[in-house]
Write a structure and sequence with these properties.
It is built from 5 helices and no strands. The chain is mostly helical and about 140 residues long.
Length: about 140
């Protein structure tokens, strides 16, 4: 589809994908505050605007994938470089082992090795506990 002919509509689409708030996007483009909510919702029903927003969101998603891939490559290089230095007896003073470990952890998270922790507790009845003061 490409850019919309109406420049305010085009800007509205770009503003809308920033936060998904049609009213705020409408105001940031420079439209009047009077009836902003209703007018913004009316713009969202326009087929061309819907199509343009979908197109911009798709491009934004592609950019996120590219940035994620770039981050993964950089983290992998940091871990691999650190591993090579360790294996070849690199200087302990030059190596930042915490940074290498942090990079490895982030890689693991990005690749789904860590599942989000969820704790669920259901209890019926009394709870007994003892408060222990430190000596």
């Amino acid at each position: 589809m490409g850019k919309l002919k109406n420049s305010r509509h085009e800007r509205f689409c770009h503003e809308y994908i920033k936060d998904g708030n049609a009213t705020q996007a409408y105001l940031r483009v420079g439209y009047s505050k009077n009836g902003a909510r209703q007018s913004a919702q009316r713009l969202l029903t326009n087929a061309d605007i819907q199509e343009r927003i979908a197109e911009l969101q798709h491009k934004s998603n592609e950019k996120c994938i590219i940035e994620r891939d770039w981050i993964i490559q950089k983290l992998k290089r940091a871990v691999e470089y650190g591993a090579q230095e360790i294996e070849s007896g690199g200087s302990f003073k030059l190596m930042d082992y915490k940074a290498i470990t942090d990079a490895a952890k982030e890689l693991s998270k990005l690749n789904g090795f860590y599942e989000p922790e969820q704790v669920e507790h259901n209890h019926v009845g009394q709870i007994e506990f003892t408060i222990v003061k430190p000596e």
